[in-house]
Design brief:
The complex is a heterodimer of chains A (about 270) and B (about 270). Chain A has one domain. Helices cover about 75% and strands about 0% of the residues of chain A. Chain A is globular, with a radius of gyration of 20 Å. Chain B has one domain. Chain B is globular. In chain B, about 40% of the residues are buried. The chains are: A mainly alpha (about 270), B mainly alpha (about 270).
C-alpha cells in the first residue's frame, strides 16, 4: 500500500518537474513580455511618490523611511504575487485545449500553478534590475533588511501568492458554467486594489474600514507580507497562520468546484 | 467632402451595431462591469479622501478639484474600454492570424477601419460614472465655469482622447514586428494610473517626466484646470498642438510599419 503511494508520489514529482522545466523555457522565450509585466507593476512606487509629498495623517503613523520601505516591499510582493490563471484557464477551456490536458498524468491544476512559479523565477533578475535602477536614482531609498525579515518575508510571499492563486482558481471554475468568466477577474481586482494596501497602508484607513478589510484575505496578500519584509512591527506568526487558514479554505472549495465543474465539462470544438 | 463624411457616419453606425449585438450576448459582463465601476468609484474616492485626512491637500489642489481630476481619469478609462481596447486587441489578432491581408484589401483607410471596427459597450458605466464625478466636483466648489471655460474643457478633453488613442495605436502598431504586444498596452495603462491625481502632487522629477515625456499632465490635469478656471488659452492651444503631433506620428508610424508587414502564413 505504502509502496503504491510512494510510486504515485514519484510519478507526480517527475511530471511536475517536467512541467516546471517546460514552462520555464517557455517563459524565457517570452522574457520581453515578462519585462513588460514587471513594468506594469510600478503602481506602489507611484503611490510612494504621492505619499511622500503628502502631509496627510499618514505621516504621523509612518516615518519617511518606513513609508518608503513599505512601498518598496509592496512593489516586490506585488511582483511575485501576480496571478493570471483566469485568463489562460478561460482560453484553454474555450479553445478546447483542456481536453488533452485532462489526459496527462498530472492534474491540470499543477500546469497552471507551476507555470506561475516558472514565471516568477524568470522575473527575479528583472525585479532585481528594477530595484537597482530605483536605488541608483534615489540612493536614500536603500535599506538593508534583516535576515529574519527576508526569510519570513519570502515564506509570506509564497503563501500570499498561493492564496491569491487559489482565490482566482476558484473563480476560474466559473468557466464550466459560463463563457467569459475572465471578466470576473476585473471584479476581483477592485477589492485587491483598495483593500490590500497597494494604494495606501491599511493603518491609514478609518477604523471601521480597516476592521472590515481584515476580515477579507486581501490585506494578507499584500499589506502584511510587505510589512514583514520592511521590518515594521507585525505579528509574523499570526499573519502566516491566517494565510494558511485562507489557503486551506480556498483549496477545499477549489477542489469541490473542480469536481462539480468537470462533470459539466464537454470539450468544445470536438 | 460631404459624401465622404456621410459614408463615414454610415460605416460607424454599422460597426457599432454589429459589435454591440455580439457583446450583448454576454450578459454576465454587463453586471460585472456595473459592479466593478461602482466599486472603483467608491474605492477611488476613499483613497483620495485619505490624502485630505488631516486638513492637508494634494499638491495644493482643493478636494473638489481633485474629484474633477479623478472624474476625468475614470471618464477616459471608459473611453479606453469602449473604443481603444477592443479595436487594438483585434489589430494584434489580425496580425497574428494573418487576416490583416483582407483588411488591407478593403477600399477604406486601414487605420480608420482598425480603430473603429470593434466597439464595446462596457465602457459606458465608466463614462457615465466619470462624468457624474466631474459634475459633482464642479458643484462642490464655488467656481462656476464660464462658456469659455467649457469650450476650453471640450477642446482639452478631445486632445486627451486623441493623445491616448495615438499612444495606443503606436503601441499596437509595433505588433507588426513583435507579435504579442498587448502587454505593452498594459504598461501604458499602468503608467497612466498616475493621471488619477493632479500632477502637482508628484515630486518634481516625476512632474517633469509626466509633462515632457509621457503626456499625463495633458490627459487629466489640464482638462480639469480648464473647467475649474485655472487654465489659459495658451495651455489649451498647446494641448491641441500636442494632440495633432501625436496623431500625425501614429499615422506616419502605421504606414511605415506596413512596409514591414509580411502575411502570417506565407
Amino acid at each position: 500500500m505504502s509502496n503504491k503511494y510512494s510510486l504515485r508520489l514519484r510519478k507526480f514529482i517527475l511530471a511536475a518537474r517536467a512541467i516546471l522545466i517546460a514552462q520555464y523555457s517557455l517563459m524565457i522565450e517570452y522574457r520581453a513580455e515578462i519585462v513588460l509585466w514587471a513594468l506594469s507593476g510600478l503602481l506602489p512606487l507611484i503611490m510612494l511618490a504621492l505619499w511622500q509629498e503628502s502631509q496627510s495623517s499618514i505621516s504621523s503613523i509612518f516615518s519617511r523611511d518606513n513609508l518608503s520601505r513599505y512601498f518598496i516591499s509592496a512593489f516586490i510582493v506585488r511582483q511575485f504575487t501576480a496571478v493570471w490563471v483566469m485568463v489562460t484557464f478561460e482560453e484553454d477551456t474555450i479553445e478546447g485545449r483542456m481536453a488533452p490536458y485532462l489526459l496527462q498524468p498530472i492534474a491540470p491544476f499543477w500546469r497552471y500553478y507551476l507555470s506561475h512559479i516558472a514565471e516568477q523565477i524568470s522575473r527575479i533578475p528583472i525585479v532585481i534590475l528594477m530595484l537597482i535602477i530605483l536605488i541608483l536614482f534615489s540612493p536614500n531609498l536603500f535599506w538593508m533588511p534583516g535576515l529574519k525579515d527576508v526569510v519570513m518575508g519570502l515564506i509570506a510571499i509564497y503563501l500570499a501568492f498561493s492564496v491569491r492563486f487559489m482565490l482566482h482558481w476558484n473563480f476560474s471554475m466559473l468557466c464550466f458554467w459560463t463563457e467569459r468568466s475572465s471578466s470576473v477577474e476585473r471584479l476581483l481586482m477592485i477589492p485587491y486594489l483598495f483593500l490590500s494596501g497597494l494604494l495606501a497602508p491599511i493603518d491609514s484607513f478609518p477604523a471601521f474600514i480597516k476592521s472590515f478589510a481584515l476580515f477579507t484575505p486581501f490585506p494578507y496578500i499584500l499589506y502584511y507580507p510587505s510589512k514583514i519584509i520592511a521590518g515594521l512591527e507585525v505579528n509574523t506568526l499570526s499573519v502566516l497562520m491566517t494565510l494558511l487558514f485562507w489557503l486551506t479554505l480556498f483549496t477545499c472549495t477549489g477542489r469541490l468546484l473542480w469536481h462539480f465543474g468537470l462533470k459539466r465539462y464537454s470539450a468544445m470544438g470536438s | 467632402m460631404w459624401k465622404l463624411f456621410q459614408s463615414i457616419i454610415i460605416i460607424l453606425k454599422i460597426f457599432a451595431k454589429t459589435s454591440f449585438s455580439s457583446e450583448v450576448e454576454y450578459r454576465l459582463n454587463a453586471f460585472v462591469e456595473l459592479i466593478s465601476v461602482i466599486g472603483n468609484l467608491l474605492g477611488s474616492i476613499f483613497i483620495l479622501s485619505l490624502f485630505y485626512s488631516s486638513g492637508s491637500t494634494l499638491g495644493g489642489w482643493e478636494w473638489n478639484s481633485s474629484i474633477v481630476v479623478l472624474g476625468i481619469y475614470i471618464f477616459l478609462e471608459g473611453f479606453i474600454i469602449s473604443l481603444l481596447q477592443p479595436s487594438l486587441t483585434s489589430l494584434v489578432k489580425h496580425v497574428q492570424n494573418g487576416t490583416l491581408d483582407f483588411i488591407l484589401l478593403k477600399p477604406m483607410d486601414t487605420q480608420f477601419y482598425l480603430s473603429s471596427r470593434s466597439i464595446s459597450p462596457w465602457g459606458l458605466p465608466s463614462i457615465i460614472g466619470g462624468f457624474s464625478l466631474i459634475i459633482w466636483g464642479i458643484s462642490l466648489g464655488s467656481y462656476n465655469p464660464t462658456l469659455i471655460d467649457l469650450m476650453m474643457f471640450l477642446s482639452t478633453i478631445v486632445s486627451s482622447f486623441i493623445i491616448l488613442y495615438s499612444l495606443w495605436f503606436i503601441i499596437a502598431t509595433t505588433s507588426i514586428w513583435f507579435v504579442k504586444v498587448w502587454n505593452a498596452t498594459e504598461v501604458l495603462r499602468a503608467t497612466l494610473v498616475a493621471g488619477r491625481y493632479p500632477v502637482s502632487a508628484y515630486p518634481s522629477i516625476l512632474r517633469f517626466l509626466f509633462t515632457v515625456i509621457l503626456p499625463i499632465t495633458f490627459l487629466t490635469t489640464v482638462p480639469a484646470q480648464s473647467v475649474l478656471g485655472m487654465s489659459s488659452i495658451s495651455m489649451t492651444l498647446s494641448s491641441l498642438f500636442l494632440a495633432s503631433i501625436f496623431f500625425s506620428i501614429s499615422r506616419i508610424f502605421w504606414s511605415f510599419a506596413l512596409r514591414f508587414y509580411t502575411s502570417a502564413s506565407s
